[in-house]
Amino acid sequence: MLFSELGLSEQLLKAVAEQGYETPTPIQAQAIPVILQGRDVLAGAQTGTGKTAGFTLPLLQLLQGQPVPQKPRPVRVLILTPTRELAMQVYESVRTYGKHLPFFAEAIFGGVSINPQIQKIQRGTDIVVATPGRLLDLIQQQHLDLSKVEHFVLDEADRMLDMGFIRDIRRIIALLPSKRQNLLFSATYAPEISALAEQILNDPVEIAVAKRNAAADTVSQLVYGINREYKRELLSYLIGNGHWQQVLVFVRTKHGADRLAKQLIKDGIRCAALHGDKSQGARVRALEEFKNGSITALIATDIAARGLDIDQLPHVVNFDLPQVAEDYVHRIGRTGRAGAEGQAISLVDPEEAYLLAAIEKLLKRQIPRVDDTGYPNVSLAVTNSKPQPKPAQPNKPARRPQNGRPGEAAKRAPNSRKPRPQAAKPR
User: DSSP code of 304?
Assistant: First the structure.
C-alpha cells in the first residue's frame, strides 16, 4: 500500500513525500482509514512503529475538510501526552505534516514560563498538544477553553497511568464536549487501560499491529550478571572497546543519573544527564547534543523512555532495571526503530534478579546471558518475586587482566592520583 491510497489530501501527501516516505507502516495503514471515518480507536503498537503520524495525518485531513473558523480560532484537536519530550515530538510531527495547511498548533507543557504559552493560546489555535498539569493550569486561569474540541487523543495512555495522571485525565475529559472523536494509543496494555478505554471510547475499533507488551524483533537483547560496584566500569569498557558513538543509558533515579554522568566524564566519555529536575533548556540542549553526536552517552531516567525519537539509535543500556516490567519494553523500544537493528544490554545485579524475572515473564522468554564478563560470577536466579537479601561481601577480589578487558589496570598506590581510564577514545 502507498500513502496515496489512504485518501489523504494533496497537501498532506506532499508533506509526507518531503520526509522521504512512500509506504505507510502497519499501524498507519490500519489507523488512518478508520480515523478518517470518524470512528473511535483503541490502538496498541510498539514504540517506533510510526503511530504519531498514524493519528496526526488523518486528524489534519479531517480539519481540512471543515470550514476555517473565525478568529480567535477555538481548539478543535487536543492531544494529551505524559511528558514534555513527547509533547514536543508530537508537536513537531503536527507542524511537519501540516506545513502546507492553514492550521495553527501549540505545545503546552510545564518547566518553562507560562506567559508565552498564554499569549499564543489567546491568538487562537486549532491544535493543542499538552501535558496534563500545564493544561489544567491554563484552564483554571481561564486562558483556555476546551468546549469546541472535536477530536481527543490520549497518547501513551499506559505511561499516563503509570505517572499518576488518571485524576487529571478525568478532570480534562469532563471539560470536553460529549460529542467528539476519541483516540487512545498505548504501547502496552494493562487492565487499567481497558477500564479507561471503556470509560472514554464509544464503540471503538481495536487496532493491534504486534503482540502486546512485546519487544521489537529488530532489537537484540543481552544480560550481563554483575555486582553493582562494577557496573560503571563495565559500561565504560563496552562503550570504549565497542567504539560506540551513541548510547542511551537508563538509570532509576535523578541522583543516580547525575552521579553516573560525572563518573563517565572522568572516564573520558562525553555524556549528559537527562531527568525531571533539569530545566527545559538543559533537557533540550542535552537531546540536541545527543542527536547531533556532540555527546556519546545520554544518561536518563524513565522520563526519557517515551518521546525520544532518534533515528538509528544503535544501543540502549539498562544500568538499572525498571521497577515495572512494561517499562523495559518502552526503554529498549528507543532502538531498533522503523525496521533498523539495535542492541539492548542490561547490567543486572543479583538484587535485581527478581526484576529480571518479571521482565522475562512479560516477554515469555529468557534473555540471553553473557557469562564471561571478566568479573566475579553472580547468580541471577530467584525463588520468589521479592528482592533477595544481599549476601555479605568479602574483600573485592583482585581483578584479572584479560586481553584488554576492564580491570586490567595495575593496583594503585595509596593516595596516588587516580589515573584517567582509557576505555573511551576521544574524537
Answer: G
Classify residue 416: in a domain, yes or no. no
The pLDDT score that the predictor gives to residue 413 is 33
Q: Is residue 270 part of a domain?
A: yes
Check the CA dihedral 161-167-170-171 and report its sign.
negative
Separation of CA 56 from chain center = 18
Q: Which residues pair with 249 in a beta bridge?
A: 299, 317
Same domain, 130 and 194: yes
DSSP labels for 365-384?
SPPPEE---SS-------SS
pTM: 0.66
Q: What is the pLDDT of residue 308?
A: 66
Q: Tell me if residue 222 falls in helix, strand or coil.
A: strand
Are residues 49 and 180 both part of a single domain?
A: yes
Examine the domain organization and report whether 67 and 132 are in the same domain. Answer: yes
Per-residue confidence (pLDDT) for residue 385, from 0 to 100? 52
**Angle CA(289)–CA(24)–CA(101) in degrees, nearest 5?**
75
Q: Does a cis peptide bond (omega within 30 degrees of 0) precede residue 72?
A: yes
Q: What is the pLDDT of residue 416?
A: 37
Other C-beta atoms within 10 Å of 318: how many? 27
Comparing CA positions, the residue from 71, 146, 144 lying closest to residue 114 is 144
At residue 106, the pLDDT reads 96
Is the same domain home to 165 and 64?
A: yes
pLDDT along the chain (427 residues), means of 10: 90 93 90 96 78 94 84 92 88 95 93 90 93 94 94 89 86 95 84 84 86 68 94 95 93 93 95 85 86 92 67 89 86 75 93 94 91 84 57 47 39 38 47
Residue at 254: amino acid letter: K
- State residue 29's pLDDT score: 93
Residue whose cell numbers read 507560562: 114
Number of domains in the chain: 2
Q: Which amino acid is at 188?
A: T
Burial classification of residue 56, based on how many CB atoms lie within 10 Å of its CB (0-12 exposed, 13-18 middle, 19 or more buried): buried
Q: Which residues pair with 300 in a beta bridge?
A: 250, 274
CA distances 114 to 138, 145, 277, 307, 425, Å, are 8, 16, 18, 22, 43
Distance (Å, whole) CA 63 – CA 58: 9
The DSSP secondary structure of 317-362, one letter per residue, reads: EESS--SSHHHHHHHHTTSSGGG--EEEEEEE-GGGHHHHHHHHHH
